[in-house]
Amino acid sequence: MSYVLGAAAQYVEGARHLPDDVDRESYLKLRMGELVQDDTDPIMQQIADQLVSHDDRGQFLAGVDIFLRGIEQQVATRRSHP
């Protein structure tokens, strides 16, 4: 439950900073460009590129899936060892 609520709070907070007339990808490209424009470290550029294409929804759903599989495993273990 904490995972779901924590992730939801994080996404809502992030959405508050997104201007109404800008889509998420454009906003992230702009911000990442500003953050790495003076950074000559190639790793920072690579990280910035990954952040722009990062799938928040996919990551959230993967976390929910891990959580649900854990519950399923606990239920199965309890049923097999009463």
Give an overview of the whole structure.
The chain is built from 4 helices and no strands. The chain has 82 residues and is an all-alpha fold. It has one domain. α1 packs antiparallel against α4 and α2 runs antiparallel to α3.
Computed over alpha carbons, the radius of gyration is: 19 Å
Order of helices and strands: HHHH
Q: Summarize the main sheet.
A: none
Number of helices: 4
Q: What is the percent of helical residues?
A: over 70%
Q: Terminal Cα separation, in Å?
A: 26 Å
Give the number of DSSP strands: 0
Summarize the model shown:
By secondary structure, the protein is mainly alpha-helical. It has helices at residues 2-16, 24-36, 42-53, 56-80.
Please give a handful of descriptors for the protein shown:
82 residues; mainly alpha; 4 helices; 79% helix
